[in-house]
Amino acid sequence: MADVAARAGVSPVTVSRAIRHPEMVSDALRARIDAAVHTLNYIPNHLASALASTRTHIVGVVVPSLTNGVFDDYLGAIQDVLNPAGIQVLVSNVRYSEIEEERAIQTLLGYHPEAMILAGVDQTERSRQMLRNAGVPVVQTMDVTDTPIDLNIGLDHAAAGAAAVRYLYDLGHRRIAHLTARADPRARRRHAGYQRAMDELGLSTKGLVGASPRPSDVAMGGELFARIVAAVPEVTAVFTCNDDLALGTLFECQRRGMRVPDELAIIGFNDLDYCVAAVPPLTSVSTERQQMGTWAAQAILDIIRGSGRRPRQPQIDVGFSIKARGSTVRAA
Fold it and tell me: What is the DSSP string of 276-305?
């Protein structure tokens, strides 16, 4: 910074002000300083700045996957709020592992973030203790819990799973299968909702549950559905724990010459973009992942930039909706 100041003919304090608060410096002076920064390839030392100001301008975000389209929209919403405010988002992918999540939380807290955002509510006790002791706002998202660490925004996955079954039941289906892969906590809750609704409706699930411990993908949807058809040829509807499996089920039906929805109805979960583009379009349980990311980021921004002001509602259930399309309902 001293080198930049000398080249621009100003004090280091003025350089710091121009970089951190450019609106406080005249256009001519800022242009001179910018030219010196570019000529010298100067990169501000954020560690030194953090030590001097006790502010790091960092928010840590922990997600279970970077390949799942659900988290693309979610992370984009978080960045759309925080980046314009001068806050950098550090993202850690923990690959659906509680132990990796524990390590990631410890690592991110080592950078002294101003807040933490987590996808999920099923942290280990050690993770929860580290987050409580960190003294920064913590937002758990994507799910709801009776014991939030701090702030919480999400949806009731068990209720969503049950709603998917009742939707198919109301269309006249009685042999309703469920496909699930890599039983992360949210997928387990969706399955619990499926099982609860089937029990309440007096429907058997024997031979109608297809599960795999492997990571979910489209091909797996076809594999799991093939097992269901072999065990219960009379199956008329499938509820899948995500849209990848729903798309794979649709492809398997097309390979077998099964008409959708005439011979098989399919409903997925999350309502990713390709659901509308599929032929026929896929019905899916829609989740408000962008709203969750936006609310989490805005709540944090209000706290760390607003003298500690916290949201009136520390916990929000955003709910869900079923987007009915051609995979369950014939076009008029």
Answer: HHSSSPPEEEEE-HHHHHHHHHHHHHHHHH
Single pTM value for the model:
0.86
* Alpha-carbon gap, residue 327 to 313, rounded angstroms: 37
Are 151 and 293 in a shared domain? yes
Residue 191 · residue 183 · CB < 8 Å:
yes
280: left (phi over 0), alpha (psi -120 to 50) or beta: beta
Nearest CA to 273 out of 80, 68, 120, 95 is that of: 68
State whether 149 and 94 are in the same domain: yes
CA distances in angstroms from 141 to 16, 78, 175, listed in the order given = 36, 12, 33
Neighbours of 254 (CB within 10 A): 13
In the block, which residue shows the tokens 């910018």? 34
| Total number of domains in the chain | 3
Distance between CA atoms of residues 20 and 18, nearest Å: 6
Per-residue model confidence as pLDDT tens digits over 250-308: 999 999 999 999 999 999 999 999 999 999 999 999 999 999 999 999 999 999 987 67
